Amino acid sequence: MACCTICLERVVTVNKKRIYPQWFLIIPLVLYICFFLFPSILGVLYSFTDWNARSAMTGINFVGLQNYTEIFTSNKDYVSGILHTLSFTVVSNMIKLVPALLLAIMLQEGLRGKGLYRTLLYLPSILPFVIIGLVFKSILNYNTGLLNMVLDALHLGILKQKWLSDLNVVWKSIYGVDAWRGIGYVMTIFLAGLNTIPKSYYEAAQIDGANFWQRIRHITLPMLTGAIMINLVFGITYGLKVFDIIYVLTNGGPGHATEVMTTYSYQLYSSGQYGMSTALNTILLGITAFIGIMVVRVMSKKEVQQ
Amino acid sequence: MKKNIQNILKQLVCIVLCLAVVVPFYMVLINSFKSKSEAARMSLALPKEWLFSNYVEVIEKGKLIQGFSNSLSYALTATIVAVISCAMASFVICRKPTKLNVFIYYFVLCGLFFPVNYVTLVKVLNFFHLTDNKPGIIIAFTSAMIPFCIFTIRNFILSVPIELDEAAVIDGAGPIELFFRIIVPLLKPTLVTCFILQFMGVWSDFLTPLYLSSSSKLFPMTMAVYQFFGKNKSYWNYIFADIILTCIPVIIVYMLGQKYIVGGMTSGAVKE
């Protein structure tokens, strides 16, 4: 980052306007504003209307906060969808981050076959969610699924579950599938972070008599702040927007036990209640915007310091 | 001695985890060659008879050729447009850090977090007559990947020495020449990373086409598979064959671009 200040001094000599034309920004900026940001803002406005499938005939009317009151008070349980989204974000991240970190540390210490393990463990995270959902729908099937079959073969029949239809188990199954897909990805980012820590730090600590946990606590974790940060950012935004895996695995069921905000929002959209759908989306936007602004703040502060 | 036991334990953990990844793949692959009744049992045994015809059948019934060409055209066009235009934008943002440009950078960065509001996006696309056609879907994909591309590419440009620009300008290069002949070759690693990650992202995406394509002519492979599953719930042999065919392209891209994925994914985060 130090190079930047040097650059700044030097570049004064060149005509910036001519060699860095502002029109280079046009395409991304126009697309981003028109087809990303503008719909979001429009969504906020429409969330105060009764916009629905019949609006072509009756027109769209301003209804104030009616959509929001319906979300928070109706018996349709939208609130539980919001809570599910939040708890999914927290739990799925914890389930992935901690084992992935331990795994990364283990691999980093030089294990034979490290490259192969890394390639294989990363593989699930590139596959489409729909595919993973379908595969696990078959694996978690109560009668013919692979998981129950393996449990039977190991004489662990007591552990057999109705993985996707039992209310007490279904979230655990979703977390399991999500971790199956995501751990390799999180681990890869941790591995890249671990690679930047100089070996000499560990050697010095070892000479000072620090044990394994002390080394992790005082060297690894502080040096990994960047990697942890990026994992958290990716993980949180992913968790808040989660849709595919739940849609394919359970479609919100059994009953409404696994609905999240995005699945509710899609349901409302397909039943023509556009105003309600955008209201739900606006709440999600509010949550993500709050978290996003905090993260961008932290990041920009860091850059200023550098 | 203690070290040895530790190593064996570690290898065991890794092998078990890798098995957990590989066995589902194996199950899908092996069952895709079985007959309907055999595949319904989903066992890990080899098929009694290898039915390669399952694949032929699925390609016809599942409209996979159409799905494949749709997916390919969405992913290629959207990604190429986004990567090139974002590289140009990040170049100017990075080299000319005026107040406006710094603001634009953080303004675009907010898009990393925001969810796309598909309901109103459909309305906006409708206004431009872009609903239910390919350009509309491609534009939606391109717009959604802009924040990530700008973020990643800008971080990389920070490390490209500015002296190169000066030298090129002194030699009489204009902005377009400077960018495409001097800067782009240097950006190759990060551009390839962005391209691969976003290509795979579009290939895997399900939500965008779910909202934006109402006719099955526009379905990418993921949608085609899901629709096929809905229609043929008991034909697991076909479904598995369909799954294999959908996965192959991403796996090939992954194998070819592996070093770029791992290196580039983290470039923004970990270099501190």
Provide the succession of SSEs of chain B.
HHHHHHHHHHHHH
Biggest sheet descriptor of chain B? none
The CATH fourth-level homologous superfamily of chain B: MetI-like
In DSSP terms, counting alpha (H) and pi (I) runs of 4 or more, how many helices of chain A? 16
* Strand portion of chain A: under 5%
Oligomer: heterodimer
Shape annotation of chain B = globular
Label the CATH architecture of the domain at 91-233 in chain A.
Orthogonal Bundle
Helix share bin of chain B:
over 70%
Weakly predicted, low-confidence segments of chain B: 268-272
Written description of the protein model:
The complex is a heterodimer of chains A (306) and B (272). With 306 residues, chain A is mostly helical. Chain A has a domain at 91-233: MetI-like (MetI-like fold). Chain A is built from 16 helices and no strands. In chain A, helix 3 crosses helix 16 and helix 6 (78-108) crosses helix 10 (170-195). The N and C termini of chain A lie close together (6 Å). Chain B is an all-alpha fold. Chain B has one domain: MetI-like fold (Orthogonal Bundle), CATH 1.10.3720.10. In chain B, 77% of the residues lie in helices and 0% in strands. Chain B has helices spanning 2-31, 36-40, 53-61, 64-95, 99-109, 118-127, 134-157, 163-170, 175-204, 207-212, 221-231, 236-265, 267-270. In chain B, helix 3 packs across helix 12, helix 4 runs antiparallel to helix 5 and helix 8 (163-170) crosses helix 9 (175-204). The longest helix of chain B has 32 residues, at 64-95. The chains are: A mainly alpha (306), B mainly alpha (272). At the A-B interface, helix 1, helix 2, helix 3, helix 6 and helix 7 of A face helix 1, helix 4, helix 5, helix 6 and helix 7 of B. Chain A: InterPro entries: ABC_transporter_permease, MetI-like, MetI-like_sf. Chain A: Keywords: Cell membrane, Membrane, Transmembrane, Transmembrane helix, Transport. Chain A: One of its GO terms (biological process) is transmembrane transport.
